[in-house]
Amino acid sequence: MKIAIIGQKGIPAVSGGVETHVEELAKRLIGLGHEVVTYTRPNYTDKNLHEYQGVRLVSLPSISSKNLDTIVHTFLSALHVIFVEKKVDVVHFHSIGPSSLLWLVKLFKPMTPVIATFHTQCYVHRKWGKVARAYLKFGELICNKVADEVIAISRNLQQYAQVKYKRVVNYIPNGVGTANIKEADLIKKWGLDKGNYIVTISRIVRHKGIHYLIDAFKQLKTDKKLVIVGDSSYTEAYLEELKEMTRDNKNIIFTGRQSGDILYELFTNAYLFVQPSESEGLSIALLEAMAYGQAVLASDIPENEEAVRNAGFYFENKNVDSLRTELDELIKNKDKVDSKRGQGLTRVKLNYDWEIIVHDTEKLYEKAISEKRFIYSKKYFQAI
User: Is residue 108 within 8 Å of residue 79, measured between CB atoms?
Assistant: First the structure.
């Protein structure tokens, strides 16, 4: 089976849940014997990189701006699938923004099934203006109405889409792999050691709620540090706002975007992982923290509750007082924190195993191909 994947910035993933999802999916599909083509942007993946772990990479240009980067790259990717790749068995779009253009593939390649993964309701994120939000809502409509098969990465999104668009939506979640446990070494350059810091790991965008976490942490009396891992995504003003909030506090550390051994160390050695998001699809960073056996404190949005259940702690979404109270309680009660360590690991192994996820995706591809062939063979016999 030849599969083309559109919508991600690129692989290997250096940031972004969609990029991590696509990387894990693509390399495992290669392991099952399929051919996979993924499209990359030169502002994310080196344009001279043409292959990664067996996955063929096609670099196409984009316009590096918040509003044009994704749509320009998606348009060129769709044209490449239609007119250059030609023979493709499945085209898989990721996210509602890129899915706004999946109709192009359906128009020019009507016998090729088009799959769309609904990752999150991007238009609720405060980084977007009115026009962008309206377009993203249009993308959600196209994703759910026009794609041959739709995948939702959370039960909450699945239920939402099925009710609103009155169609069957497949539930196939994000996954998590085996943790790379690393003793504190490289992170000591920031004064970090096992158990002496609280960590949050995400893109630095407003809906991730990092300002709530900083505000709550500043009100605590603690020797622990707060470590914020990640970089902006066309949100430099927000990053500067956060740094201004922390200018007089040496215990709040911005590491920037991290990967490899440093990231593994940051996950492994934290006292507590905090996920303060206002909204999510299904956070891969949250799942990864649980896979590392970390106790997690998360905002009580449905997507976080779906991932964590009883394996962690919660605070009221957007409520700084609630977050401060929970942090204070957990910092003062190590036994309470330790009681949750490992529960998350058991949960992700049972519910978010990439091997199961990839096999479920493969089966959906096969189903979509069979249904397309049946429809067109039926039309053929009716015509004669």
Answer: no
Residue 154 reports pLDDT greater than 80: yes
What confidence tier does 78 reach under pLDDT thresholds 50, 70, 90? very high
**Count of C-beta atoms within a 10 Å radius of residue 149:** 20
Tens-digit pLDDT profile for residues 204-225: 989 999 999 999 999 999 999 9
From residue 82, how far is each of 70, 87, 112 by CA, in Å?
18, 9, 10
CATH number of 186-350: 3.40.50.2000
- Identify the top-confidence range among 119-123, 135-139, 376-380: 135-139
Computed over every residue of the chain, the mean pLDDT equals 93
What are the start-end ranges of the E strands in the chain?
Answer: 2-6, 35-40, 51-52, 55-59, 90-94, 114-118, 149-152, 170-171, 197-201, 225-229, 252-256, 272-275, 296-299, 313-315
Task: Tell me which DSSP letter residue 225 carries.
Answer: E
Q: Which residues of 18-57 are buried (b: 16+ CB within 10 A; e: fewer)?
A: bbbbbbbbbbbbbeeebebbbbbbeebbebeeeebeebbb
In percent, how much of the chain has pLDDT > 70? 97
CA dist list (Å): 74 to 99, 205, 384: 9, 22, 39
Q: Please, what CATH class does the domain formed by 2-175+353-383 belong to? A: alpha beta
State residue 190's pLDDT score: 97
Q: How far apart are CA 267 and CA 366, in angstroms?
A: 37
Residue 288 and residue 305 in contact, taking contact as beta carbons nearer than 8 Å: no
The predicted structure's pLDDT at residue 368: 96
Q: Provide CATH 3.40.50.2000 ranges for the chain.
A: 2-175+353-383, 186-350
CA 15 – CA 233 distance, rounded (Å) = 10
Task: Say how far apart CA 173 and CA 352 lie, in whole Å.
Answer: 7
Q: How many residues belong to the chain?
A: 384
Measured CA to CA, the distance from residue 23 to residue 157 in angstroms comes to 22
Average pLDDT over residues 232-252: 90
